[in-house]
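2024-03-11 09:14:02 DEBUG pipeline.ingest accepted 1 chain
2024-03-11 09:14:02 DEBUG pipeline.ingest length=219
2024-03-11 09:14:03 DEBUG pipeline.predict start
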Amino acid sequence: MTVVAPRLSVERRLLRDHALVIACDEVGRGALAGPVAVGAAVADAALSRRRVPEGLRDSKLIVESRRASVAARVREWVPASAVGWASAAEVDSVGIIRALGLAAVRAIDGLREFGVEIDDALVILDGNHDYITPIAPIGRGVMPIIKADRDCASASAASVIAKVARDELMMSLHEEHPAYRWAQNKGYASAEHRAAISAHGLSIHHRASWSIAAAPTLF
C-alpha cells in the first residue's frame, strides 16, 4: 500500500486568516502504564513555503528505528515545538480525556518559552473531539481534524515529536522497572506486559483505575 506524505495544504489555507497555526497530537492514550503526551508544533507563513522533511509521516507509520532521526529533522524544520505531559496518576484522578486536555495545554504553554504568541494562533487537533477548550480557551480556538496526523504536515510533526519523547521516557522508566519490559512495549498491553502485571502487580506508573486485567493485547 502506498503511503501518501502529509502536506501543508490545510495549514496554508488557515494561515490566510490566522497569524499562526499550532498542530497538536497525542500519544500514549491507550497505554496501560506511563503518561499521556501531546506534541505541539507551530506552523507560520515561512514554514508554509518550506519543503516537508523527508520521511515525515504520522508517527505510527514510521518504523521505530527511523523515528528519532525524523523527529530531529522535524524539530529543526518547525519554528517551535513542545511536548506536554499528564501522568498516570492524573489519568486515574481526572480520566483520560481531561488528562489529554491537561497535556495539550501544557504543551501549548511550553511554546511560550520560544516567544510564540499563543493568542494569535489557531490550534488544529488530530481527531474529532476538542479536549483542549474545556481545560482552557486557547488563542483563536481549536479545530479538530480527523486524520490530521496523516494529512497535515504540522500535525505529523507534532505526532512524531511526541512519540519519540514518550518512547524515550518509557525506556528510561524500564531501567527502574525492568520486569514490565517497557523498553519494548512502551507501556502498551503486550502479552509480556500483562504477564508481568499478573506476576508483580502494578507499579506507580500504571493507570490503576483502568481494567488492566481485561485490556486487549495490542502487541
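2024-03-11 09:14:41 DEBUG pipeline.report The chain has a mean pLDDT of 93.
2024-03-11 09:14:41 DEBUG pipeline.predict end
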